[in-house]
Design a protein that fits this description.
This protein is of the alpha/beta class and 254 residues long. The protein is built from nine helices and six strands, in the order αββαβααβββααααα.
């Protein structure tokens, strides 16, 4: 009897820490492309760059699981809404369900030079309710300030409380992704457009102006490396197809 009690007590002690320290499930979040309300058609691509930057910034937050941009692009093509100028809650919820996310971040930007205003909404996919709205305004040529404030608002809107260490990690990631001028982010966004069309070589070439303006932006350098990798793989596949076609022609000669 005594032995059974001791064993039971030991098992209970082992079970307690597992219950107490079980990590909370991550919140799955998709950041959709931001809409252009500047009235300038050449800014249409900028929303892709903004979303890509935010995905990179927020990826260091442990409590958040972000949907990758390539996966989101596939869903946007499937929904045939990649050219939609405004994501209402209904469209956002539909996208969120297809992406398997719990929350969708949608936003828009407007500019009255030299100022830029960015509005964001966090939408619950389950209920369709807007759980957080935020707005940041600042100079186009001091975009890093907007970048920092925007990430903070989005983390708050998702109900995530960062520890000092997590806040430091987010600040460090933003420092690594620092972009000062909107025009550098626009150049990056135009390169993403080519990448999404499958023009990997053209995308890598179009990245060069962006990298010259923001040489230390980590998310841009990572995208550039991926563009070069995909361009090389595409060129190799084309070369193989050409060789196969040539061999096929030789084999079928009379």
């Amino acid at each position: 009897m005594y032995r059974q009690s001791v064993i039971g007590f030991a098992v209970a002690l082992l079970a307690v820490p597992t219950t107490l320290h079980r990590p909370a499930p991550k919140k799955t979040v998709a950041v959709l492309y931001f809409d252009n309300y500047t009235g300038k058609a050449d800014y249409d691509a900028l929303g892709k760059g903004m979303a890509s930057m935010m995905i990179s910034d927020l990826s260091v937050v442990p409590e958040i699981q972000l949907v990758e941009r390539d996966r989101m692009q596939d869903v946007m093509k499937e929904m045939d809404v990649q050219h939609t100028r405004y994501f209402d809650s209904t469209t956002a919820v539909k996208a969120g369900r297809m992406l398997g996310s719990q929350y969708i971040v949608v936003g828009s930007f407007a500019a009255v030079q030299p100022k830029m205003k960015i509005d964001t909404r966090v939408v619950s996919v389950e209920t369709g309710a807007i759980v957080k709205t935020a707005q940041v305004t600042g100079d186009e040529d001091k975009f890093f300030d907007l970048q920092q404030r925007l990430a903070k608002d989005l983390v708050d809107g998702l109900g995530v409380a960062l520890s000092p260490e997590e806040q430091a990690a987010l600040s460090e990631r933003q420092r690594q992704n620092r972009v000062e001028a909107v025009k550098s982010l626009l150049a990056f966004s135009l390169a993403l457009n080519k990448y999404d069309r499958g023009d990997f070589g053209g995308a890598a070439e179009s990245m060069l102006p962006a990298l010259r303006m923001a040489p230390d932006a980590g998310f841009m350098k990572a995208a550039y490396d991926e563009m070069k990798r995909r361009a090389a793989a595409s060129a190799a596949d084309k070369a193989k197809d050409k060789i196969k076609a040539g061999l096929g022609g030789l084999l079928h000669r009379p």
